[in-house]
Amino acid sequence: MKVKEIQDLLGFIAASGLSEVNLKTSEIELHVKRNPDSPAPVPYVEPVASTMRAIPQIVSTPSAEPAVKSSQPADIADTSKYVTIKSPMVGTFYAAPSPEKPPFVQVGDLVKPGKVVCIIEAMKLFNEVESDVSGRIVKVLVENATPVEYDQPLFLVDPNV
Question: What CATH number does the domain located at 45-158 have?
Fold first, then answer.
Protein backbone atom coordinates (compact mmCIF):
# COMPACT_ATOMS: atom_id res chain seq x y z
CA MET A 1 0.00 0.00 0.00
CA LYS A 2 1.36 3.41 -0.91
CA VAL A 3 1.67 6.25 1.60
CA LYS A 4 -1.00 8.24 -0.25
CA GLU A 5 -3.45 5.34 -0.01
CA ILE A 6 -2.80 5.00 3.72
CA GLN A 7 -3.31 8.76 4.19
CA ASP A 8 -6.58 8.62 2.27
CA LEU A 9 -7.72 5.64 4.33
CA LEU A 10 -6.87 7.38 7.62
CA GLY A 11 -8.67 10.51 6.43
CA PHE A 12 -11.73 8.46 5.53
CA ILE A 13 -11.71 6.71 8.90
CA ALA A 14 -11.38 10.03 10.75
CA ALA A 15 -14.19 11.62 8.74
CA SER A 16 -16.50 8.62 9.02
CA GLY A 17 -16.50 8.48 12.80
CA LEU A 18 -15.69 4.76 12.86
CA SER A 19 -14.12 3.67 16.12
CA GLU A 20 -12.31 0.58 14.84
CA VAL A 21 -11.10 -0.66 11.44
CA ASN A 22 -9.15 -3.80 10.50
CA LEU A 23 -7.56 -4.14 7.06
CA LYS A 24 -5.44 -7.03 5.86
CA THR A 25 -3.88 -7.36 2.42
CA SER A 26 -0.93 -9.31 1.09
CA GLU A 27 1.28 -6.24 1.70
CA ILE A 28 0.00 -4.81 4.96
CA GLU A 29 -2.03 -5.54 8.03
CA LEU A 30 -3.60 -2.44 9.56
CA HIS A 31 -5.57 -2.16 12.79
CA VAL A 32 -6.89 1.31 13.70
CA LYS A 33 -8.75 1.85 16.92
CA ARG A 34 -9.62 5.16 18.50
CA ASN A 35 -11.37 6.23 21.63
CA PRO A 36 -13.95 8.92 20.78
CA ASP A 37 -14.33 9.83 24.47
CA SER A 38 -10.68 10.75 24.92
CA PRO A 39 -9.77 14.45 25.02
CA ALA A 40 -8.13 16.05 22.00
CA PRO A 41 -4.35 15.67 22.05
CA VAL A 42 -2.12 18.68 22.62
CA PRO A 43 0.93 18.97 20.35
CA TYR A 44 4.29 18.56 22.04
CA VAL A 45 7.70 20.06 21.38
CA GLU A 46 9.16 17.18 19.32
CA PRO A 47 6.24 16.43 16.96
CA VAL A 48 8.09 14.69 14.14
CA ALA A 49 6.37 11.40 13.33
CA SER A 50 6.74 11.87 9.62
CA THR A 51 7.45 14.71 7.25
CA MET A 52 5.07 15.60 4.46
CA ARG A 53 5.54 18.13 1.70
CA ALA A 54 2.66 20.36 0.77
CA ILE A 55 2.17 20.70 -2.96
CA PRO A 56 2.06 24.38 -3.88
CA GLN A 57 -0.52 25.40 -6.44
CA ILE A 58 -1.10 28.72 -8.15
CA VAL A 59 -4.34 30.34 -7.05
CA SER A 60 -6.28 31.42 -10.12
CA THR A 61 -9.40 32.77 -8.43
CA PRO A 62 -10.15 33.92 -4.89
CA SER A 63 -11.03 31.04 -2.59
CA ALA A 64 -14.68 30.46 -1.78
CA GLU A 65 -13.66 29.62 1.78
CA PRO A 66 -13.57 32.58 4.15
CA ALA A 67 -10.26 33.36 5.79
CA VAL A 68 -10.61 32.42 9.43
CA LYS A 69 -7.45 34.21 10.50
CA SER A 70 -6.27 37.40 8.91
CA SER A 71 -2.86 38.43 10.22
CA GLN A 72 -2.18 41.10 7.64
CA PRO A 73 -2.76 44.84 7.72
CA ALA A 74 -4.90 45.10 4.58
CA ASP A 75 -7.16 42.82 2.57
CA ILE A 76 -5.56 41.06 -0.40
CA ALA A 77 -7.73 41.83 -3.40
CA ASP A 78 -5.85 40.01 -6.19
CA THR A 79 -4.77 36.52 -5.15
CA SER A 80 -3.92 35.35 -8.67
CA LYS A 81 -0.24 36.23 -8.23
CA TYR A 82 0.13 34.12 -5.08
CA VAL A 83 0.95 30.46 -4.58
CA THR A 84 -1.16 28.45 -2.14
CA ILE A 85 0.31 25.96 0.32
CA LYS A 86 -2.39 23.35 0.80
CA SER A 87 -2.98 20.67 3.40
CA PRO A 88 -1.60 17.29 2.31
CA MET A 89 -4.05 15.45 4.58
CA VAL A 90 -7.13 15.58 6.78
CA GLY A 91 -6.38 16.49 10.39
CA THR A 92 -5.95 19.32 12.88
CA PHE A 93 -3.84 22.35 11.95
CA TYR A 94 -1.26 23.57 14.46
CA ALA A 95 0.75 26.72 13.72
CA ALA A 96 3.40 26.03 16.39
CA PRO A 97 5.26 23.00 17.77
CA SER A 98 3.60 23.49 21.18
CA PRO A 99 1.19 25.99 22.76
CA GLU A 100 3.98 27.95 24.47
CA LYS A 101 6.22 28.16 21.37
CA PRO A 102 5.95 30.77 18.60
CA PRO A 103 4.34 29.82 15.25
CA PHE A 104 6.53 28.23 12.57
CA VAL A 105 5.67 31.09 10.18
CA GLN A 106 3.77 34.36 10.34
CA VAL A 107 2.64 36.92 7.78
CA GLY A 108 5.75 38.60 6.37
CA ASP A 109 8.10 35.66 6.98
CA LEU A 110 10.23 34.35 4.13
CA VAL A 111 9.98 30.64 3.36
CA LYS A 112 12.11 28.33 1.24
CA PRO A 113 11.47 24.78 0.07
CA GLY A 114 11.86 22.44 3.02
CA LYS A 115 10.91 25.04 5.67
CA VAL A 116 8.33 23.68 8.11
CA VAL A 117 5.23 25.91 8.00
CA CYS A 118 2.85 24.00 10.31
CA ILE A 119 1.89 20.65 11.81
CA ILE A 120 -1.14 18.57 10.84
CA GLU A 121 -2.19 16.07 13.50
CA ALA A 122 -3.97 13.01 12.15
CA MET A 123 -4.76 9.91 14.18
CA LYS A 124 -2.43 11.10 16.98
CA LEU A 125 0.50 11.45 14.56
CA PHE A 126 2.01 14.92 14.23
CA ASN A 127 3.10 15.53 10.63
CA GLU A 128 5.30 18.47 9.72
CA VAL A 129 4.18 20.25 6.57
CA GLU A 130 7.03 21.77 4.58
CA SER A 131 6.89 24.49 1.96
CA ASP A 132 7.76 23.56 -1.60
CA VAL A 133 7.94 27.19 -2.70
CA SER A 134 10.16 30.19 -1.96
CA GLY A 135 8.58 33.50 -1.11
CA ARG A 136 6.93 35.62 1.57
CA ILE A 137 3.87 34.52 3.58
CA VAL A 138 1.13 37.07 2.82
CA LYS A 139 -1.84 35.38 4.48
CA VAL A 140 -2.56 32.60 6.98
CA LEU A 141 -5.90 31.06 5.96
CA VAL A 142 -6.48 28.73 8.92
CA GLU A 143 -6.79 29.39 12.64
CA ASN A 144 -4.65 27.39 15.06
CA ALA A 145 -6.05 24.09 16.40
CA THR A 146 -8.84 23.86 13.84
CA PRO A 147 -9.70 20.90 11.60
CA VAL A 148 -8.53 20.99 7.99
CA GLU A 149 -9.46 18.92 4.96
CA TYR A 150 -7.24 17.36 2.32
CA ASP A 151 -6.14 20.00 -0.22
CA GLN A 152 -7.51 22.89 1.89
CA PRO A 153 -5.55 26.13 1.41
CA LEU A 154 -3.43 26.95 4.48
CA PHE A 155 -1.16 29.83 3.40
CA LEU A 156 -0.82 32.32 0.55
CA VAL A 157 2.78 32.91 -0.52
CA ASP A 158 4.12 35.69 -2.75
CA PRO A 159 6.81 33.94 -4.85
CA ASN A 160 7.98 37.26 -6.38
CA VAL A 161 9.98 38.37 -3.36
Answer: 2.40.50.100
